[in-house]
Amino acid sequence: PASTTRLPHGGLAVGGVDLVEVAERFGTPVYVLDEGEVRGRCRTYKDAFPEAEVHYAAKAFLSRAMVRWVQEEGLGLDVCSAGELELAVTAGFPPDRIVLHGNAKSPRDLDTALRLGIGRIVIDSPSEIARIAAAVGPDGRQKVMVRVVPGVSAGGHHKIRTGSDGQKFGLSLSDGSALHAVARVLAQPQLELTGLHCHIGSQITEVKPYLTALRRLVGLMARIRDAHGRVLPELDMGGGHGIAYRPGEAALDVTTLARRLRGELTEACAGAGLPVPRLAVEPGRAVVGPAGVAVYRVLAVKHTGETVFVAVDGGMSDNPRPALYGVRYAPRLIGRAGAAPRTATVVGRHCEAGDVLAAGVELPGDVRPGDLIAVPVSGAYQLSMASGYNMVGRPPVVAVHDGTARLLVRRETLEDLRLRDIGG
Ligand code: LLP
């Protein structure tokens, strides 16, 4: 995780900046992003996949600075709404290097994508085909891909498994709807089918499901060639690459994944008599997750029966992941050494009992109000999934790099919270 340095007296520095200083300067809760770590992770992908397109999945975390870093490191971008797309393009990202996803793209999503000149639109359902063709207009031509469900189950939690039938994304390989959709796309002169896409799930820590999915997609490419005489030049294997949230947990090794995907692709294409398509991957979590740290201040400590509750100034509105997926984090006290550890439960400030950030973790026995708690590996799917619950306001994002800290996204103020409500 983030380029952390342990400082004396229990301190923790990220990107050369003491987190206590960040908390004092910007307030808490605060999300700290290590720019060097994000860039380093982008480079790991570029090095591992020199011949492939690497699209960063913006849904994991997006800000204007993030857009710049990803662009400067040579990655493309995957977006799933007009909001993400417009932020990226106004921050200077080239639209032709952006891919639009979504199982239910709104008219605004499609209009914005076409207006801005998006690189690819990934078709997720049959009803979209005619809609996109109509929106493109008689003289236009838009590059599209078809998202296929290959029938592979993988992912860290049932809510984030998307590779099998019976969930809402993509077009089934097994019941023929993927091949049928391909035929319909090929019949639309406004649409240029560049390839197939799949995203089998998220927080996957094994290579094997990717290889199985890849073989099945190459098989479908061969059937498309046989049925339509069309050889598709691109194959997008999606994201989902798992990371470690706590010390000792397994992560997917990007270099191994790249090598095995490449090997499997070469072999499968040779077997099918197909030229090797250009590969693409779409990592989100693995690019930004380990580069983020959330810092909270303890507001209350309570002993109830056997349990010690340590209540902090954020919670499920900035990090819904423990409540949604039962994910376990490794919070730690920063800023002072603390007494011998004991088991505690870190809870948020929200008005429900399910607002638990980390149950049964080891924290110093003398944790008290005013202390700072850092939660490493907080860069992905926390702020991007933040809600307005209890109107506490969303925390700011601070970038740390080479010993300096700078604000990227400011804290939501009481005024922000009030402004959209026009009284009616
Ligand atoms: N491509 C597509 C089409 C996706 O739907 C996703 C994530 C990705 C790429 C990137 O997946 P990643 O590499 O980040 O795993 N909120 C959940 C994760 C949901 C993932 C949604 N799709 C969580 O907090 O674990």
From TrEMBL:
Gene3D superfamilies: Alanine racemase (3.20.20.10), Lyase, Ornithine Decarboxylase, Chain A, domain 1 (2.40.37.10). Specifically catalyzes the decarboxylation of meso-diaminopimelate (meso-DAP) to L-lysine. Homodimer. Its EC number is 4.1.1.20. Pathway: Amino-acid biosynthesis; L-lysine biosynthesis via DAP pathway; L-lysine from DL-2,6-diaminopimelate: step 1/1. This is Diaminopimelate decarboxylase. It is an enzyme of class 4 (lyase). It catalyses: meso-2,6-diaminopimelate + H(+) = L-lysine + CO2. The gene is lysA. Its cofactor is pyridoxal 5'-phosphate. Signal peptide: none annotated. Substrate binds at R285, R321, Y325, E352, Y381.
